[in-house]
Amino acid sequence: MESRLLAFLSRAPILKGVLFAILLQSIAVFLLVNLFHFTGLSDRHLDTFISVTVFLGVVGGGILAAKAAEARYLFQGLGVGVACFLAVVILSLLSGVALEMVSIGKKALTYVGAGLMGGFLGALLGK
Prior knowledge:
By secondary structure, the chain is mainly α. The chain has helices at residues 2-11, 13-38, 46-68, 73-95, 101-125. The chain has one domain.
């Protein structure tokens, strides 16, 4: 079973990148929560730290997807960014949170830009 899953993920670099981005973001958010809880950091910096965490997570996923792909590295990174953005929008819609167009636009630029940067860096780093 495990070998089939690994074989499937090797043929689907965007899915592999999205899963890695989510894992990386989860670990980083866990560390941020503990950092804010156990230190005297002000909550006013939380939005900035979360944006950086999301950006770095999607860049990491884009790098992994681009390195796993055989060609079209930028498209693989872009795919990771778009897939992560769609996942966030769908989860926001399901949770009933009000969405503002400005907020959606900023998130779209963040995710797509991070995905493209990850694809570019993955192409530079090679296999």
